[in-house]
Amino acid sequence: MSLAGAVKTFRIRLKNLTSMQTFPVLLALSASHMLNDLLQSVVTAVYPMLKEDLNLDFAQIGIITLVYQIAASIFQPVVGFAFDKRPFAYSLPAGMVSTSVGIALFAYSNSLPGILLAVFLIGIGSATLHPESSRITSLAGRERRGFAQSVFQVGGNFGGSIGPLAVALIVTPHNRHYVLWFLLFSTIAFAAMRPIVRWYKNYLNEAKLHPESHKKKLALPLSKKRTTFVICVIMVLIFSKYVYMASLSSYYTFYLMEKFGVSMKMSQIYLFIFVVSTAAGTLVGGPIGDKYGRKLVIWCSILGCAPFSLLLPHVSLPLTAVLSFCAGFMLSSAFPAILLYAQELLPTKLGMISGLFFGFAFGIGGIASAVLGKFADSYSIETIYNVCAYMPLMGIIACLLPNLKNREIPK
Fold first, then answer.
1. Residue of 227, 296, 258 whose CA lies nearest to 383
2. Confidence band for 221, pLDDT divided at 50, 70 and 90
3. How far apart are CA 135 and CA 156, in angstroms?
């Protein structure tokens, strides 16, 4: 196919995707995800200022992180399970209320208990948004659920990456009270959620009026024992993915400065290249899974990252940038496919399974960052990349996943 033909084909496919009736809802979900993750990133970005304001030690910072992780990670499947039982059209605004109250407390609390309550509320907001938004995204995506999840995930990637920059511009030049300005972003989030609430309320009303059309394909594709085994396999794959991603997202700048002697400014530019690769991979992974199957995407994205991760510690600076882009692109394409594969395993528990995997991914990422930091103190940053380079090889166990052939979930 010629370049002109390829461009024409891409334009036709993009037009078909964006012509979906629910495409505005998907954009609103992506925007909500972006704003939520932007607000969530405020917590860790303000740690240095918080430590100085309240004269905290690193153990107390660790307690704050633990409380936040418990709320943001462990509560996700709990929230998802609760709303699976009793769907609530206003669940997303309710989560944003919790986040907003937490942000206000975080800006003005002058005691450790107050800060712990603040980060708990912020975490609960995240624990509500991720499983609920993922559920609504799958319902709105219908036969193009992979594309829908990719659009949704890209919003989160973007929000998480610009959050620290927003803190640097808004809060760092002044004081912690300026965190209150981030309530402007939560206000925008409430506005973005209006079309989502409207659509989801209509969906729930339609489901009540015509339950037979919404519950015709709820049978589990596998036995309960087989489903449990497959979920365990997926968790191992997520473990391998997020341990290696933690090494890149948390320590890539330090690695570049230590090995190649680049400046802090240049290291941030290289980190931005990596962040762009994760957004691009996320956007591509879902649609490819729609067309060729989730298992193929999971297999290729995780195991396919291994050549790049294994080469990265042994090449020059320009090739390091290229390989980090390729590794980020490959790995990031996996999560939309993994999440949809899990939803197809348990089509009656969309919220719970979404919360389980979002929470597990966040938890693994946080724990891995802490462990790798200790590892770097004891050995070196370069050692991290030589050891973590082998993590994508665990993707070979994707061969144990049965091919679900993109089964339908409730409509």
1. 258
2. confident
3. 15
